[in-house]
Amino acid sequence: LAERLQGTIQKIKGKGKVTEQDVKEMMREVRFALIEADVNLKVVKEFVKKVSERAVGVDVMKSLTPGQQVIKIVQDELKNLMGGEQSPIKFSNRPPTVIMMVGLQGAGKTTTTGKLANVLRKKYNKKPLLVAADIYRPAAVEQLQTLGKQLSLPVFSLGTDVSPVEIARQAIEHAKEEHLDVVLIDTAGRLHIDEELMQELKDIRGLKEPDEVFLVVDAMTGQDAVNVAQSFNETVGITGVVLTKLDGDTRGGAALSIRSVTEKPIKFVGMGEKMDALEPFHPERMASRILGMGDVLSLIEKAQANVDMEKAKELEEKFMTQSFTFDDFIEQLQAVKKMGPLDELLKMIPGANKMKGLDNVKVDEKQMGRIEAIIYSMTPNEKTNPEIISASRKKRIATGSGTTIQEVNRLLKQFEEMKKMMKQMTGMAQGKGKKKMKM
Ligand code: GDP
Ligand code: MG
Predict the structure, then answer these.
(1) What are the tens digits of pLDDT across the range 112-148?
(2) Which stretches make up the SRP54-type proteins GTP-binding domain (predicted)?
(3) Closest ligand 1 atom to 271 CA
(4) How far, in Å, from the CA of 135 to the mean position of ligand 2?
(5) Which protein residues touch ligand 1 with a CB less than 6 Å away?
(6) Which residues have CB under 8 Å from 218's CB, separation 6+?
(7) Is this prediction's pTM over 0.80?
């Protein structure tokens, strides 16, 4: 999306107002991105309609181009749609807090039960009790017991011959006696939603109103997630959602669909199989992920904040008249530096995090420092007319900047080539009768 969207943005750049046609074009891309991210079609339609209404006729703020503004609206609305802010866990003021985990088989309930217990202990200072109430899936009880051992947390189990409702009842009693303050019930899932399962879950619910009923959903299931969420919400009643397997390459459109269909907050996301791979849900990050554009907006904002438009114009003039000097060069360097560490910036570029080998790219900030030092060692006259720098001066500059003559030579050569290139570019631009030059 990012690339195509950028194209559309380029087109409407510089306009004072966003027209209906502009929005239509951008919304086509957004729509495409959402469908690609597996967002439910009905949800996509409603969303696009809402954003279009907000976007048409928007006045362009000084700091943003119309395109960026539309993207910002898209992102804001996505974020709102997913609940806006992070949603905390609700604890009972009469412990134990009861949290029930529900969902289809293989969604990640048991794993998430372990992870959640870990979070509760570490971040909330709670004493959780894991309850093995899945008596159907072979080895489900053992699976939870293994996790409990791994985490050094107590697991309550009555084997597989006692009904889940009875297990849950006794577990809550046990927690009271042992002063354990959160009871996490790992329930059975089915391959499909069925009456029996729902009744069982309702019965467990009936024991003591759970403080939270978390629906665990596999983010990779995409479209299906909507139906699952809807039926669980309607029959059992849920209070929140945990979206698992987001460490995979799914874009996570399920998050959007589930939220807008059930209106229940997504509380956590599973980012792996390990017991520490559970993170609070961040609507904003999810919005970017669904749109497939990294942190595009923060990148844009960063650039906007640091690149002075007036300055840019001035530079453009200098390019045209070929009066670009080392002083201008250093100003440019500093503007780039102000934007932050270069490797961080690189990471924000959409797709860049997926690019092979980017991990190894270390943008050399030391190198930039050396270039700066060389330029600072020049006299004002030399900065404007570097061709007057003699061999002995080169030596002095190298000594003064703590670099070598080779480095000084290289910089001078690069600068010369840059100017030559500018000359060609401006020549071309003027040849075509264009006044503007793209930077
Ligand atoms: P349950 O049937 O709902 O209890 O599902 P399980 O907890 O047994 O999980 C099913 C499989 O999904 C297991 O192999 C888990 O390791 C895996 N799993 C669960 N959560 C995640 C996650 O966030 N990321 C990844 N990659 N795998 C997960
Ligand atoms: Mg399980």
Answers:
(1) 999 999 999 999 999 999 999 998 887 899 999 999 9
(2) 265-278
(3) 23
(4) 9
(5) 103, 105-111, 189, 216, 244-245, 247, 270-273, 277
(6) 104, 106, 107, 108, 225, 244, 245
(7) no
